[in-house]
Amino acid sequence: MTGEGDPAPRCPALDPAGGALHAEAAALRARGPAVRVELPGGVPAWAATGHAAIQALAADPRVSRDYRHWPGAGQAPEGWVLAPFAFQDTFANTHGAEHRRARARIAPAFSPRRVELLRPQVQATADRLVGELAALPPGGRADLRQALALPLAMTVICDLFGVPEQLRGALGRAIDTMMDSSLSQADSLAAQAELGLRLSELLAHKRAVPAPDLTGDLLLSGGPDGRPMPEPELLGTLFAMVGAGYETAVNLITSAVLELLTHPGELAKVRAGETGWADVIEETLRVEGPVMYLPLRYALADIDLGGGVVIPAGDPVVLGFAAAGRDPERHPDRPEVFDPARPDKAHLAFGHGPHFCLGAHLARLEAGIALRTLFERLPDLALADPDRPPARIPSVIVNGPAALEVVPRPAA
């Protein structure tokens, strides 16, 4: 597992459909701090799935997210399903001083103080959505992801960026489709074209109907150099911010509800005041982080991770953020068990280092309000199919249930 002169190793291939992300990550973690794998589309990369290795690589200035630092970028196949993330023209895919300047332009809008100002809006949206669930007849079923988690997160992020109502549904569906890493080449190209169309529609609307929102204030107005973002960067930044701004929260909320409904004893502890909603959120982030491999990063120099593992300069790297919380070296006590009372709930669900997720405060706020409102308003909420685990999102990028069928008010 060393330099370029070694014989090409037989790389395990990541399941493009993400059918067993945690089992797959555990198998890789057992092989060393980083392992050469084959990404969807046949692209080779190094995967790190242990807490210590992920933390070290995410903070290492010799690791870049700028695809200009990937000598093999031109070898990615046409229609590569990960291309919209790896080759995105956005502040997230910059490095060093350039990244710090670009991030500083957007970060203030997601500070804890600014996010806290959104609490009444988030609460009002949660009240409305949970009210609709409560209005279902006894025994009626609903997909909690579609009925609460997704519309709550989508409403908040679209309000922030001034996405008009008539564009939200199509934009959300386009972003959801892009998260499916099992798409064929043809379907991936079609999905990329659809996403580009929807983002272009949004920009056209914002130019025609300017308003004091993040799209206008931060993206279309002049930056520190007095010039607005170029069109490709505008499109990439909107995709990054709107997509990350709701996918993370949707998966966090849906996973937390699933954990509580499958662990009724833990829900009882919350209701008894023995644990809090913050404990539930952090433990969900540890055991079911909403993001797995967000591609890509690139080694700017040979990086020795110990144990005979050296990532050669120029090689791409993926970090298994959702896997870090289950690392037995970091959590030797039942790492795969959901236990909100555990004293150490350390995780890397929002990343680490200079690319730490800007939306972490917002996702926690949304999840806290959604969970409290849901379980207080619907004390008898139950899984519709308790003996059948829900299908997972077909993705190596994000992690969570694709749907979560619940009965808000079970029949007597």
TrEMBL record:
<dbReference type="InterPro" id="IPR017972">
    <property type="entry name" value="Cyt_P450_CS"/>
</dbReference>
<protein>
    <submittedName>
        <fullName>Cytochrome P450</fullName>
    </submittedName>
</protein>
<dbReference type="Pfam" id="PF00067">
    <property type="entry name" value="p450"/>
</dbReference>
<dbReference type="InterPro" id="IPR001128">
    <property type="entry name" value="Cyt_P450"/>
</dbReference>
<keyword id="KW-0349">Heme</keyword>
<keyword id="KW-0503">Monooxygenase</keyword>
<keyword id="KW-0408">Iron</keyword>
<keyword id="KW-0479">Metal-binding</keyword>
<dbReference type="InterPro" id="IPR002397">
    <property type="entry name" value="Cyt_P450_B"/>
</dbReference>
<comment type="similarity">
    <text>Belongs to the cytochrome P450 family.</text>
</comment>
<keyword id="KW-0560">Oxidoreductase</keyword>
<dbReference type="InterPro" id="IPR036396">
    <property type="entry name" value="Cyt_P450_sf"/>
</dbReference>
